[in-house]
Structure formats: structure tokens, C-alpha cells
Design brief:
With 79 residues, the protein is mainly beta. It contains 1 helix and 6 strands; from the N terminus they run E-E-E-E-H-E-E. It is 14% helix and 43% strand.
């Protein structure tokens, strides 16, 4: 299985807003290719009605976790 890296912002209103991190370390944030840190800053400015409780970049690894054949390991945490 290929490496899968995900950027997620968790809010009180939604469990996770998710974006795939490409091989250049960028996410497609509504048409703009920017870093996850920039995406988190823009999210807070553009969507002030959502209170972010966690934001992180995680990588999927092939370690069994309950019913799943993989688990997510946090690489970088912004909040």
C-alpha cells in the first residue's frame, strides 16, 4: 500500500475537515496549493464560525488497529 498523508482540522461542528497532502507537502485548499500550516491559518480566518479543536498532519501505516489493517500516526500538530 502506498504512503497516504492526510491533513485534518477537527471542529466542534464536524469531526474532521480533511485534505490529502501531496508528494510536495502541499494541500489543495479550495483551489490553492499551499502548506498545511497555511491552510490552517486560512481556515481560521475564512471560517471563524468553526472553532478548531485540533489540527494535524498524519501518515497511514500498516499496523493493525482493531478491525482496520492500518493506523494513523501524527507527524505534525498545529493545535
Amino acid at each position: 500500500m502506498e504512503e497516504h498523508i492526510l491533513f485534518a482540522i477537527h471542529t466542534l461542528h464536524r469531526p474532521a475537515h480533511k485534505w490529502v497532502v501531496n508528494e510536495d507537502g502541499l494541500v489543495d485548499f479550495f483551489g490553492d496549493m499551499i502548506t498545511p500550516a497555511e491552510a490552517f491559518e486560512r481556515f481560521n480566518v475564512e471560517y471563524p464560525m468553526f472553532t478548531a479543536v485540533r489540527a494535524d498532519v498524519s501518515v497511514r501505516t500498516m499496523v493493525p488497529n482493531g478491525i482496520y489493517s492500518y493506523t494513523w500516526n501524527e507527524v505534525e500538530r498545529f493545535l
